[in-house]
Amino acid sequence: MIRDLVARFAAGLRFPVLFALTATLFVFDLLVPDLVPFVDEILLALGTLLLGSLRKKGRTGAST
Asked: Which residues contact 54 (CB under 8 A, 6 or more apart)?
């Protein structure tokens, strides 16, 4: 169910593979401890949100 929802969302993105790679890296980064907490997690989350907001050309607004 979740996999189908994510696949439908990614189908409308301009760079679905790059989005999936960034999201996977974000989840991995949450699991690995680091020296400065939450700085890289915040940056990766912002990058993932940015890539998630890039839609294919020709589509306008949010999908319903």
From this structure: 13, 14, 15
Task: Please check whether residue 57 is in contact with residue 14, taking contact to mean a CB–CB distance below 8 angstroms.
Answer: yes
- Report the run of H or E that residue 1 belongs to, with start and end: none
- Helix %, strand %, coil % of the chain (to 5): 65, 5, 35
pTM comes to 0.58
The Cα 16–Cα 28 span in angstroms is 18
Q: Measured between alpha carbons, how far is residue 10 from residues 19, 33, 36, 39 in Å?
A: 8, 29, 31, 26
In this structure, are residues 15 and 51 in contact, taking their beta carbons and an 8 Å threshold? yes
pLDDT in tens, 19-50: 888 888 888 878 887 777 778 888 888 888 88
